[in-house]
Design brief:
The strands form two sheets. Strands 6, 7, 8, 9, 10, 11, 12 and 13 form an eight-stranded mixed β-sheet that branches. The protein has a five-stranded mixed β-sheet with strand order 2-1-5-4-3. It has eight helices and 13 strands. The chain is of the alpha+beta class and 338 residues long. The chain folds into two domains: 86 residues, Ubiquitin-like (UB roll); 242 residues, Glutamine synthetase/guanido kinase, catalytic domain (Creatine Kinase, Chain A, domain 2), CATH 3.30.590.
Length: 338
């Protein structure tokens, strides 16, 4: 019996990378293999040399279609020698994992996003052209006045679980219409694979609920929280020794490192990292225990137990998780190895 394989890949759009997909019908027993697409329509090629190769790297059951249908996440390759396409950020994550895998890097990614009315572009829970009551009651809130979109969020959580993704939680966020799901713990490559598939499932299910999903860093200007992808990170040494936790924080603040990381942390950094709304300014670096206004937060229980992980609060919701996981792995693991 034939089945469907939904091929996913990350495009070359600017300024924010997006997920693309198309369906391949496969015969019973046929294994998904190399495929291709028109790169001139995705910002990844020119019209006179438009072919880009898709290589399957991760498969899950398709929880939306069900049956024997599957989702196939792919990375992108150049025709000819099948080397990684310039837009293929997964290749660098694989290289980082191969180099530092012995340190057992673990990630937990907190993907925030905002639900929008597709006609007005206004966040769910905002009156048309107006504003709801100030922030305060919406974070992890309950009730129809405070919470909007829960049916979609429940469907997305169930879909991620059915697909075997490492989703570890979900909650309503500080701004009305804003939500978060978490992926992890997982390594440098796996966490980004799972997050991209989880994004796809969210966008896909939102179609059926008549809602648009935005991962813009600051969807509402003014006195409203932005949307981030707070990144929790540890190595085996950090999970065993507090000195390694402090060393990781110090490594992230070395000359040139904050700037290099922010360049890979998504679009709209200066709009979101203002020093307000639970952020440190983009042009300053700090770390501290239980400090949500710091660049890097050391959770209070980590300081108490003298081991654990750190939370980089700077990545934007629209950051490429492959880029973020590669940056943290290379910076911290190289410092701890030294």
């Amino acid at each position: 019996m034939a089945y469907r394989a939904e091929y996913l890949w990350i495009d070359g759009s600017e300024p924010t990378r997006e997920i693309r997909s198309k369906t391949k019908i496969l015969a019973d027993g046929e294994v998904p293999g190399l495929w291709g697409f028109d790169g001139s329509s995705t910002g990844q090629a020119t019209g006179d040399n438009s072919d880009v190769v898709l290589r399957p790297v991760f498969e899950t059951p398709d929880p939306i279609r069900g049956g024997n249908d599957i989702i196939v996440l792919c990375d992108t390759l150049l025709t000819g020698d099948l080397s990684p396409h310039p837009s293929n950020t997964r290749a660098a994550a694989v290289a980082a994992m191969e180099k530092y895998g012995d340190q057992e890097p673990w990630f937990g990614l907190e993907q925030e996003y905002t639900l929008l009315d597709p006609i007005t572009g206004w966040p769910a829970g905002f009156p048309a052209g107006g504003f709801p009551a100030p922030q305060g009651p919406y974070y992890c809130g309950v009730g129809a006045v405070k919470i909007h979109g829960r049916t979609l969020i429940e469907a997305h959580t169930s879909a991620c679980m059915a697909a075997g993704l490492k989703i570890s939680g979900t909650n309503a966020e500080v701004m009305p219409g804003q939500w978060e799901f978490q992926i992890g713990p997982a390594d440098t490559v796996e966490v980004a694979d799972h997050l991209w598939v989880a994004r796809y499932l969210l966008f896909r299910l939102a179609e059926e609920h008549g809602v648009e999903v935005s991962i813009e860093a600051k969807p509402m200007k003014g006195d409203w929280n932005g949307a981030g992808m707070h990144t929790n990170f540890s190595t085996k040494a950090m999970r065993e020794n507090y000195d390694a936790v402090v060393a990781a924080c110090e490594a992230m603040g070395q000359p040139g490192i904050p700037e290099a990381h922010l360049a890979g942390y998504g679009v709209g950094i200066e709009d979101r990292l203002t020093g307000e709304h639970e952020t440190q300014r983009y042009d300053q670096f700090s770390y501290g225990v239980s400090d949500r206004g710091a660049s890097i937060r050391i959770p209070w229980q980590v300081a108490q137990e003298q081991k654990g992980y750190i939370e980089d609060r700077r990545p934007n919701a629209n950051a490429d998780p492959y880029v973020v996981s590669t940056l943290l792995t290379n910076t911290i693991c190289s410092a701890l190895a030294g």
